[in-house]
Amino acid sequence: MHHVTAKFVPRILTADQKQQRVDVCSELRQLASGDETFLSMVSTGDESWVYGYDPETKQQSSQWKSPMSPRPKKARHVKSNTKSMIITFFDVKGIVHKEFVPKGQTVNSGFYCNVLQ
């Protein structure tokens, strides 16, 4: 007997969902094989969390001190409590559009439709 853990998968798909993915991939493959510029027309998007920082340069944090006083200490930058989600859309040439999600906003298909308009 061996102790085994379950394999983690993002989602368990139904047979219909699997077939739909196969159909979409087959259609995209046909479009890509018939047109050399097909991939240049593809746009995609991504959601990311970004953290706010209030950086202070080394020069800004400098202080006058006497030869006998201890050297000032400065803590390293850590993630602040200012956290926002950004949605970025890009294509083969680079970023097409970026938008910060307002605090408390649910990101769903309706929100994406409003952003894309």
Ranges with pLDDT <50 over ≥5 residues? none
Given helix and strand content, the structural type is alpha+beta
Q: Which outline best applies?
A: elongated
Q: State the strand order across the main sheet.
A: 1-2-3
Distance between the termini: 58 Å
- Helix count from the secondary structure assignment: 2
Please report which band the strand proportion falls in: under 5%, 5-15%, 15-25%, 25-35%, 35-45% or over 45%. 15-25%
Q: Order of helices and strands, N to C?
A: HEEEH
How helical, in percent, are the residues? 10-25%
Rg, alpha carbons: 25 Å
| Main beta-sheet strand count, sense and barrel state | 3 strands, antiparallel
In short:
This protein is α+β, with helices and mostly antiparallel strands and 117 residues long.
What does this structure look like?
The model has no long low-confidence stretch (mean pLDDT 82). The chain has a domain at 15-52 and 79-116. It has a 3-stranded antiparallel sheet with strand order 1-2-3, with no helix packed on it. It has helices spanning 15-34, 109-116, and strands spanning 44-51, 83-91, 94-101. The protein has 117 residues and is α+β, with helices and mostly antiparallel strands.
Helix and strand topology:
Blueprint: H1 15-34, E1 44-51, E2 83-91, E3 94-101, H2 109-116
Antiparallel strand pairs: 1-2, 2-3
